[in-house]
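Quick one - first record:
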Amino acid sequence: MPKLTFWFEFASTYSYLSAMRIEELAVKAGVEIAWKPFLLGPIFKAQGWDSSPFNLYPAKGKYMVRDIGRMAEARGLQFRLPEPFPQNGLHAARLALVGLEEGWGPEFVKGVYRAGFADGRDISEPAVLATELEVAGANAENAMARAQAPHIKEKLRANTGEAQAAGIFGAPSFTTSAGELFWGDDRLEQALVWSLR
């Protein structure tokens, strides 16, 4: 089956939109999705940024909030920008890697996005993550312990390095098996079609 890699960052508003619809679209397209958490912080630093571009450019940030609000409403989703923004998604990303190994990853990912961008909760809080782990069917205590394992930490660093090497500069991004790169929720459909080539 053709495969499309979904690169996501838990601090990314537009990744929230993609995470909530990618599975249904992929099933219809006959494409397998590889979920790949990574961190935008090191990528932004390499570009000379110390925060989200939506914070660095206030007009762009104001537009983004309204744009996400419109899109979320059209898709039947709730949206609120959490405070602080961007959220620290490091521990959530490590937990997602554990979940992708154990089979509950996508449900956890969607739960964390809902917690942050629908409910406005702080996704760096262990209690918030524990709740989403349980909802996804995981044992929260075991998952939290596994997320501290050296190989999980190294996997997240490797994912981030791989993203940089692939030319990824933002999230969500999508790459086909042939290495074709697409950036943004509005390119998801095109990425799925391209992955069938």
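second record:
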Amino acid sequence: MDKTKEKGIKALNQEYSKYDQVNKEQAYHLAEVEEDQFDEAYEIKTCDLNQFLHGGESGKAQFAQELGEAMEGIGFVILEGHGVDPKLHEQGIEKTREFFETTTLEERMKYMAQRHGSVNEGYFPIKETSRIHPDLVEGWVFCRRAFNLDGASDYRENDFWPKEGFETFFRQIVLEHEKLILPIMQSILRYFGCDPFLYDRKLTKANFGFRLNFYPPMSTEDVESGAGRMLGHEDVDLFTILPAESVEGLQVLNRENMKWIRLNPPRGSIVLNTGDYMQRITNDRLPSTTHRVSKPQNPELLGKPRITFPMAVYVWEDEILEVLPGLGEPKYEPVSAIKFHTAITSKYYGDDYAVEEEDK
């Protein structure tokens, strides 16, 4: 095993703090260890997006207040009333399983991840999601350019997808999740007393990372190795839209007491969390919250694959991230999205991944 990854199983996040671009004082193990403590009493707040969508101005104000308070407290909420058909998410789970189970490793390796702008797009083999930890997950990241969303004349499906049909299906989910981006961002801005439409231009046809995660069944060897299904981390983005999954394992760090929360949201709901972009522009008011995926408590679930398809919402590479007005003396200087993003993710992909400005 690669010595870097071997160390990563037992490493603390602070060993990689030089890559952080926002303040992160919390110290935690990248993978679950015996001495970790759990907060069984904390409940992640549920927010009803239907208030924003159909409640008029008072509904928008109420949703913004509830969402903002929850995000400021823990950085995670459970969204209900979001309007996405639960059947589409159920089909997404089965389609993701089909995606990984009907393509060969040889076919997938032809699409090994490469940086496009800020984002490392493409296939990540199992144990290769990060250079610092042997995650027990296969992943595949598709950015906006991988979908035929804007009718580009030079779009070619097989540049991004190993088989026909998958782009057409997953485009449906992306389009549904895109409808949630402006309501969420407008509500966060409203919570801080900012112009709620300040980010509308930046987030209309914005870039994103739509990721298919396939966690295969865990063998006895996997369990005994001490590796996590996905290492503890903070997302890099503004926020992440994650449909709920039935196979447990998602854990959220409560920075108030440094205990982990086991998050098992109801089917049909969406988990929403903030990332580094958001912490930067809110002057640390909304934390980029630590989370990880560990083995399920229920041993019967060890033999089942875990499947998720989060959508990470970014701004384009040439946009400038700067602290929002009215949030006090800025702790952070304005920075280009590409410099910010790649400086952080070079932790996972190597120091040469970081770039100073957008490719010309």
